[in-house]
Amino acid sequence: MLRGKNIWIIGASSGIGAALAKVLNERGARLILSARSEERLRKVSENLSSETIFLPLDITEVEQIKSALGKIEKLDAVIFLAATYQPGSFQNKSLEVSQAIVDVNFKGMLNVVHVVMPRLQKQGNGQLVLCGSVAGYRGLPNAQPYSATKAAIINFAESLYAENKETGIDVKLISPGFVRTPMTDKNDFKMPMIIEPSQAAEAIANGMTRPGFEIHFPKRFTFFMKFLALLPYPLYFAIARKMTKP
Ligand SMILES: NC(=O)c1ccc[n+]([C@@H]2O[C@H](COP(=O)([O-])OP(=O)(O)OC[C@H]3O[C@@H](n4cnc5c(N)ncnc54)[C@H](OP(=O)(O)O)[C@@H]3O)[C@@H](O)[C@H]2O)c1
Fold it and tell me: pLDDT tens digits for 127-177?
């Protein structure tokens, strides 16, 4: 049940986050939208309920997250979607680019969880939804360190879920396959079973109302990736290389 819930989407200015804002709005949630770009957040909220508020912030700046939380009166769920990605081999990325990916995707996630957890704990209820990726199931060629940050988020969310089994905080993990967004527009290979952001948003909204830890979609692709994760290394490497060839 999402009607009347106060839901903070971090990473709401484009792609899956913007589509999710639309779906949750249609299902009656009250939304707080965050990302860096105030202009894009304003655009997303233009077509949503007038109750929608947007709080621009950079997740690499912990004080900005604290200040935003201070402006949020009621909080039932936090959905963390913010991330950055650069395709290509690791050697062809500058150290600065790789560090920025880790700073946003992993350290940014730590910042957000560190700030919001005390509020949820004090309430004794609420949902914390973190976004990993099937790219984190195993190391993918031409996706580092993005792929490693997603593996770290999966691992982190698993621990958090287990730690909070008794606290009333519902920790969930989103594991998308390929979704057509500004992030994947950067890829120059054919993305198998790619879906639209609206489909991803429906799957997330449905998953939030169901019991269980992982919300993964599209199922045909994610089950295939789960199967790949079980294969011995030589077989896995052969398939992974083929899958990401331009
Ligand atoms: N698309 C896919 O195929 C796919 C597959 C698996 C997982 N995912 C995951 O799904 C999530 C959403 O991705 P997407 O495809 O929708 O990508 P996207 O369109 O590029 O959206 C990324 C969002 O993160 C925000 N963001 C980036 N850096 C930020 C920062 N420092 N502080 C605050 N916000 C920041 C961006 O807004 P600003 O630029 O305005 O800050 C934007 O709203 C990500 O976690 C991604 O890893 C996507």
Answer: 999 999 999 999 989 999 999 999 999 999 999 999 998 999 999 999 999
Write phi, then psi, for 91 (nearest 5 degrees).
-60, -30
Strands (E), the chain: 6-10, 30-34, 53-54, 77-80, 126-131, 169-176, 214-217
Distances (CA, A) of 134 to 120, 139, 149, 166: 27, 10, 12, 28
Q: Which of 84, 183, 190 to mutate to test the pocket of ligand 1 (most atoms within 8 A of CB)?
A: 183
Ligand 1 centroid distance, CA of 104 (Å) = 10
Domain boundaries, the chain: 6-243
Smallest CA separation from ligand 1 atom 29, residue: 82
Q: Atom 17 (ligand 1): residue with closest C-alpha?
A: 183
Is the pLDDT at 244 greater than 80, yes or no? no
CA of 234 to the centre of ligand 1 (A): 32
pTM of this prediction? 0.97
Ligand 1 atom, smallest distance to 176 CA: 6
Question: What CATH architecture does domain 6-243 belong to?
Answer: 3-Layer(aba) Sandwich (3.40)
The b/e string for 205-222 (b: 16+ C-beta within 10 A; e otherwise) is bebbeeeeebbbbbeebb
